[in-house]
Amino acid sequence: MAIMGIQALVNMINILILLAVIAGIVILQVYLSKKDSKWPGLILPVIMLIFSLVVVVGMVAFEGVNTFSQSEYIDGEWVVVFEETHREPISGAVGAAVYIFLIMNIPTAVLLAIYASYRGKQSKQRALEKMSIQDLE
């Protein structure tokens, strides 16, 4: 009974750590998006896009590879007596790869939405400043 309570506490701490990391990433994205240059705000979305591409390429590269080997214990050591490797068609992996790519890019879309929101506010603010300066002339 006490072990279940400890496990629940560990799970809750893990969730809190995950939420803190997500909040930190969002705060960092807001900070980078508010910069005068447009490039810092694109750093985190590009990192997430690259990460999703690495996951999808890794998944496709190892999808459908099946290795079967049979070993026997001969003269005090294990010897492989039969090994077979075959690769299944990649057609089934394509749909899974697209699905995983879309799921993995949800954080990218959220970060880009934050970026677009703050960049839009900045462009409106610059336009208003420009109009007020023209009005003064």
Mean pLDDT comes to 84
Overall morphology? elongated
The helix/strand series, from N terminus to C terminus, equals HHEEHH
Number of strands: 2
In the sheet with the most strands, the strands line up as 1-2
How much beta, percentage-wise? Answer: 15-25%
Q: Notable features of this structure?
A:
two-stranded antiparallel ribbon, 137 residues, alpha+beta, 2 strands, 4 helices, single chain
Structure description:
The protein is α+β, with helices and mostly antiparallel strands and 137 residues long. It has one domain. The protein has helices at 2-33, 43-62, 91-104, 106-136; strands at residues 65-74, 77-87. The protein has a two-stranded antiparallel ribbon with strand order 1-2. A hairpin with a 2-residue loop joins β1 (65-74) and β2 (77-87). The longest helix is centred in the N-terminal third of the chain and has 32 residues, at 2-33. The radius of gyration is 26 Å and the shape is elongated.
